[in-house]
Amino acid sequence: MSSARPTPQPRDHYRAFRPITTRWMDNDVYGHVNNVVYYSWFDTAVNALLIERGALDIHHGGTIGFVVETQCNYFAPLAFPQTIEAGVRVAHVGSSSVRYEVGLFAEGAPTAAAQGHFVHVYVDRATQRPVALSAALLAVLDTLR
Does an H or E element contain 135, and which? Predict the structure, then answer.
């Protein structure tokens, strides 16, 4: 484990952005978004981009992505009723896996309020065994590097 303290990344570290609307229920008793919600936003940002760009069919596709690793660092609080801008980039592509990095920004902020990553392993829907990344997915991933 690295002893270097993470620092918030600027917007230009990310390749695609997606707005996310906070909800009243996202706030916890301390008046800011609860940490578990950030992981939901990671999933939402990445999967929405893949669906919109034709690389993932969550209802009928033969391949699905399982999250096998995730991590988040927090730098500044976010709270309802803010709009969040989720930045996404691809950090690594394997034969059946992808490491996505996600930065969560308060609307218009120059640096991330939180950032982290998750790793998807793509598997056959029926057998749940790893499969090679499809050409359609690889094409989308190239735009996010």
Answer: helix 135-143
CA–CA distances in Å: residue 16 to residues 5, 40, 77, 104:
25, 18, 22, 12
The model's pTM is 0.95
The label of the residue with tokens 């706030």 reads 27
CA end-to-end distance (rounded Å), the chain:
25
Closest CA to 46 of 102, 104, 112: 102
Section 57-61 average pLDDT: 96
Phi and psi torsions of 139, nearest 5°: -65, -40
8, 79, 33, 85: CA torsion to nearest 10: -50
- Model confidence at 48, in pLDDT bands (50, 70, 90)? very high
